[in-house]
Amino acid sequence: MTQQTLPLGKLPLELLNQILYSNKTDDDRIILGPGVGIDCAVVDIGERYMVLKSDPITFATDEIGWYSVQVNANDLATTGATPLWFLNTLLLPEGKTTREDVLRINQQLHDACASLGITVIGGHTEVTHSLDRPILVGTLIGEVEKDRLVTPRGARPGDRILLTKGIPIEATSILAREFPGQLRAVLTEAELRKAADFLHQPGIGVTRDANLALSAGKVTAMHDPTEGGLAAALWELAEASGNVLRVNREAVHIPELSQKICSFFGLNPLGTIASGALLMTVDAQDAGKIQSTLEDSGIRCTDIGQVSAGTPAVWITTNGVEHALEHPEQDEIGKVYAS
Question: Is the predicted pLDDT of residue 23 greater than 70, yes or no?
Answer without folding.
Answer: no
